# Entry
Amino acid sequence: MNESEVTISNLHLEFNYIKDLYESTFKGLVLERLSLSNNRLSSIPDGAFDGLQDTLKALDLSHNLLEVFPKALKDLTVLSHLYLRGNLLSDLDSYDLYGCRYDLDVLDLSGNRLKKVPREALHTTQRITRLSLQDNSISSINDADFSVWGQSLTVLNLANNDLKYIATTAFQGTTKLRELRLSYNYLLSFDPNMFIPIKSSLEVLEIGTFNVPTLDILQGMGKVKWLQMDHNKLAKLSSSTFESMSSLIHCDLEGNKLQSVPIGLFRSNVHTRLNSVNLANNEVEVIETDTFHKLPIITNIVIFGNKVKIIQSLAFREMPILNTIILARNEIFLIEKAAFSNLRSVTNIFLQDNNLTEFNFDGFHKVGDEKNHVFLDLSNNKIEKVTKVNDFKSGETYIKVRSLDLSNNLISHVDGSFLRPVGGTLHYLFLSYNRIPYLDTTTFLYAPNLQVLHLDGNRLSNLPNGVFQNCLMLQIIHIGHNNLSTIFAGAFRNLSSLRILDLSFNNIKTFPEDVFLGTSLERLNLSNNNIFHAPIHSLAHTRSTLRYLDLSQNRISTIPTNGLNHLHNLLSLNLSSNKLTSLSEDTFNKLVYLLYLDLSHNTLWRLDDEPFRALVSLQVLLLRNTSLPHVPNLPLPSLRVLDLSHNLLCNISDVSFSSLKELRQLDLSHNCLSEVPTHVWPSIARLSKLDISFNPIQTLSMNSFRKLDRLRELDLRGLDLKYLDARILHNLR
# Structure
């Protein structure tokens, strides 16, 4: 090697907007792989690759603007991988590939403008194994397109062209072909005999959206592992359709017009390698007994979006590693007893968006085990009743449900014994948006390990004592959007693990003093209720744990002096949209860890600095639409975001922002400011976002934003400008 040469095995120059290469650009380099993809090259001059003739093995010119095959490539005699996808090539000349004829192994011409297979150029090659012509405009494959040179071809991609015709003998010379992709073409005529020469070698066959009229072509394809025949208008399968395909791993028949899945289509003694089946978006009406039976390594079955009405007994059974069954968006109204049986590894069963009107767990028998707990989704059905299993036997395994979703149904009553078959493993229960009017102490009797419960959007009017007494592991409860007006003192009794409670959008006025006693509440949402007085005494029991409190959209008019001081660990407090008119000097006296405070949409006619003095950690203060006529001195050294929009501010005092050295965002929009408050900018010099829109400001001068060197966002909409200095932003450079 010449001492002046530099050896770099891989050089990446993609995404650089390179428009031109020059002669000897890479001279002095020893390269094996070079990427120039995603640039703006429209041509490459002769000699551009001088010095790389004997070393460059892989060249990527994808996603450029090449209309003609670059002649400079002819000198690259050891090139084995050439990527030209996403250019503008319409053809290749006879000798374009001649220089690398002995070594060229992989050629990608996808995403160009080819109208035919460039067989003259390919004819000079001797060992191409992988060729992609995907996403071109090739309309026909003729007899000689792959002859002679195609004898080494193992992978061929012709997907998404404009193919109307493929000659019967087109693949006669490609007897080593293992992968063939022909999807997204629309043949006018189809001769099944075209596949005869490659039946014994094919391992991957993709012919989706290909106008395949029959599945007879699959006979004899014993090595095919990956089969994709989606969107072909296939109407019928027979039990022998796949009987010769013992190597099948993946079978995709989505988007056809299949009306049934015949018993024996998939056989345990034949399809020992089958891993996934996709029958989505067909017209299947019934899943019969033993349709899916004893397939040893299948993991996924997808029957989404069909017209299935009934799942017969033992339809899915004895598949030891089956993980997911998707039956969503069908018309299922009946699941027969033990329809899902002996499926120990299942973790997901999707049955949402069907027509079930009644549900219990007798459709499941030995589903899941101690290691594999199931997510069962029955949301968006028409279920009115959830009932107990009539012949329930203690110790019998029905289904090991970890998460049960029954939201968006029509359930009006939850039988106390309904959860008995699954209660021991149930951690998550979703009953939101049903019609449940009440709960009692038996509702969750058999859910001792429940951790998360969603009851939003029902018709609950009260929470009685002991309603959750059997669910001592509960951590999260959502009961928003109900009609709750009464919560009894013992509603949350003994829930020592309860961390998050959402009671928003109800009609609650008051809380019993001991209602939160014994909980570990960290987040409490009481917004959008009818609360007149902040529940100070009730909240006292959360003093050591509560971090986030939302009391917005209520009718609170006063916060008692020192009323919140026991909540000394609070990080976020939302009091927006209440009836507050003032704050006492001790309102937030002990909230030294508070980071977020929202007082927006109150009528705070009078506000001074005293209530804020203790808030040394506060980072966000929202005072939007609070009728403020002036801004007090805000002693908030950590504040980063301040919203004073939609107020009555006519001016801002020199000292208002004097302590806000860390402020980054300031919103003064929709006020009565007649001039830019330039006198306060030195105090908030770190500001990056400023909004002074919709103020009656008439003049913007060169010094309007002086001292705001870090400003990145500025909103000046809706001003009453009479004078605008062209140098207004000069000081922001």
Notes: Residues 619 and 639 are 4 Å apart (CA to CA). The chain has two helices and 46 strands. Helices lie at 119-122, 536-539. The two ends are 52 Å apart (CA to CA).
